[in-house]
Amino acid sequence: MNTTPAQARIAIIGAGPGGLICARVLQEHGITATVYDADASRTARDQGGSLDMHPRSGQHALREAGLLDDFLAEARPEGQQMRLVGRDGRILFDAAPPATDTAEGNPEIDRGQLRGLLLDSLKPDTVHWNHKLSRVTPLGDATHRLHFADGTTADADLVVGADGAWSRVRALLSGASPVYTGVTFVETGLGDADHRHPDLARLTGDGTMMALDNNQGFVAQRNSGGHIRVYVGMRTAENWHQQAGVDLTDTAAVREALLAEFTGWSPELLGFITATDTGYTNRPLYALPVPHTWTRTPGLTLLGDAAHLMSPFSGMGANLAMLDGADLAGALIAGATVDQAITAYEDILMPRSIEAAEGAAEGIDSAFAPDSAMQTLAHMTQHH
């Protein structure tokens, strides 16, 4: 395709951090992009937990978007604290963030706050809400037609699949699908934790607390507004609840099943199961096969989880998605044609995605292993 990026109809599927960063950087350089998202509105659902923004990826992308100062004004540097706790409740490792300038470390921000910052930076009507992509049809000239669930369509010279783990755009580029990692998180939460759950708040600290042992564990993560998000993790069957005869909508039944799984853990840690203010959400963890690559296809590309879904034990998911978005925008700004830009972008994207995904696979395997406590302690000691 010889279309110049400035003339191209650019459609970004998915209003996550990567897609929004891409649209923002393009707009800052006079290039128009339209973002389509399945959510009914920006407030339609909870956006998830807290993210640490790394200097050379997430923060770099925010700087390219002209938003780094806005981010630093909302970020929580104290959220970098990492704590490892034994299954008996003893603190084995505790590292507070360095008392330096915020931008020197990996300050935390809630996903919802980050998304709001990005959305507010875009021109009105950039994001088209309530546009769930049903399918993409090639039109034969490197352009594509987007078909949405409401029956509407849109044509694009470039379709950017920023549509997450179960990307519909990916199917045009790759036959790969996410596979179950063998680990499931059951998410729960503590509201107004310092007042309602002071013991659990103290055990969590200001950042992230992990207690990992023998293929099981707890991850408790400070969010803003006094909320602590808790992930109860287990290496288990993907349909563990069905095997146990548990209805996931039955809060008491889920609680009892989890307590049975965590027999022998300290009463303090079991409080993360019993003290829920939010109920329980079952979250099996999936990842794309490694390496995940595709053949260059005019008019299409991927970023973020659509390109390199990996376990959260890389700590890189959102950071990489934002770096992808900034790099794709940069390639379009510099490229003479859309084709040249996509080639340049994918030449950068694929090698680093493979490296990060390999690290994430190793990370989850060591975090949920028979000797995970010792492996995690050795890793934390080495890196702090």
Would you kindly provide a written description of the structure presented here, covering whatever features stand out?
This protein has 384 residues and is an alpha/beta fold. The protein folds into 2 domains: 10-79 and 106-177 and 288-367, 3-Layer(bba) Sandwich (FAD/NAD(P)-binding domain); 180-285, D-Amino Acid Oxidase, Chain A, domain 2 (2-Layer Sandwich). The protein has 13 helices and 17 strands. The chain has a 7-stranded mixed β-sheet with strand order 5-4-13-14-15-12-16, sandwiched between helices. It has a 5-stranded parallel β-sheet with strand order 7-2-1-11-17, covered by helices on one side. Strand 8 (133-138) and strand 9 (144-148) form a beta hairpin. The longest helix has 30 residues, at 338-367.
